[in-house]
Write a structure and sequence with these properties.
Mean pLDDT: 93
Number of helices: 9
Low-confidence stretches: none
CATH superfamily: Transmembrane di-heme cytochromes, Chain C
Helix content: 55-70%
Number of domains: 1
Largest sheet: none
Bound molecules: protoporphyrin IX containing FE
Strand content: under 5%
Distance between the termini: 75 Å
CATH architecture: Up-down Bundle
CATH class: Mainly Alpha
Order of helices and strands: HHHHHHHHH
Radius of gyration: 20 Å
């Protein structure tokens, strides 16, 4: 029963909240769709924290897509052996994981220790920071420590199989039974952040001004 709750009901509830929450916020609360800048209060720590976090998280996301989404047999078929995958996932994953973690530590420390930033922060801002810090920390711990202390554990034969089952609406909770606790905590909190996403500053992710790079210049003319 607990297994069904954790590995079927909870993740689907998070995905449903993610989708419905975004639709709701977009329709009824668009004015608050922002990451509410605090750059005018403190710039340097924000810059380093933000650069490191974003530089790390993008490859980490690509790693998740490959590790969770692509079956090991498909990668073997195109010549990526398990050993090659493992070296890439552990070493490259650890480097970008640590970069993300340092960024997250700087951002969280700034939000909590800088009095003006703290006063400007809502409870949800602080919660998102702490939760992300925890997810990234426990993810790095799993990659760096657990992969070495429990080398027989293979998340591609367990977590990834369960995860793909969820996506095709055929979740099999048995895959999660012997997963180490640190990985379980990572996965549960990883889903939790998706449920909170539409109600927090994270919505800014969907408003990155990508067209800014290619848009035509704005011409300013002198007023006569
Ligand atoms: C939603 C479900 C998620 C699942 C099933 C999941 C699964 C995993 C797995 C299996 C690993 C170990 C990878 C390895 O050892 O090679 C890992 C690592 C990691 N995860 Fe996640 N994760 C999830 C969500 C997240 C989220 C939301 C974040 C960040 C906000 C995140 C950040 C990380 C980081 C930083 C690492 C360590 C670096 C790396 O190996 O890429 N994960 N995750």
């Amino acid at each position: 029963m607990l297994a069904q709750l954790l590995w079927v009901i909870f993740p689907y509830a998070c995905i449903a909240t993610f989708i419905i929450g975004h639709i709701f916020r977009f329709r009824y609360d668009q004015f608050s769709w922002t990451a509410k800048s605090s750059e005018f209060i403190e710039k340097k720590q924000l810059m380093w924290g933000s650069i490191l976090f974003h530089l790390g998280i993008i490859p980490v996301i690509l790693g998740h897509v490959a590790g969770l989404g692509i079956p090991a047999s498909w990668l073997r078929a195109i010549g990526v052996s398990d050993h090659m995958y493992h070296i890439g996932a552990v070493y490259i994953g650890s480097i970008f994981g640590i970069v993300t973690l340092i960024g997250m530590i700087l951002l969280t420390a700034r939000r909590i220790t800088n009095e003006s930033v703290r006063k400007l922060s809502s409870l949800s801002d602080i919660l998102v920071n702490i939760l992300l810090l925890f997810i990234v920390f426990i993810g790095c711990y799993s990659t760096i420590v657990t992969n070495f202390t429990m080398p027989h554990f293979d998340y591609r034969q367990t977590i990834s199989e369960w995860f793909r089952g969820l996506l095709i609406l055929r979740p099999q909770v048995a895959y999660m039974a012997d997963v180490p606790l640190q990985f379980k905590l990572h996965v549960i909190t990883g889903f939790l952040i998706f449920a909170l996403w539409p109600f927090t500053r994270l919505v800014h992710v969907w408003s990155v001004p990508v067209n800014y790079v290619g848009r035509s210049h704005i011409l300013y003319r002198k007023h006569k």
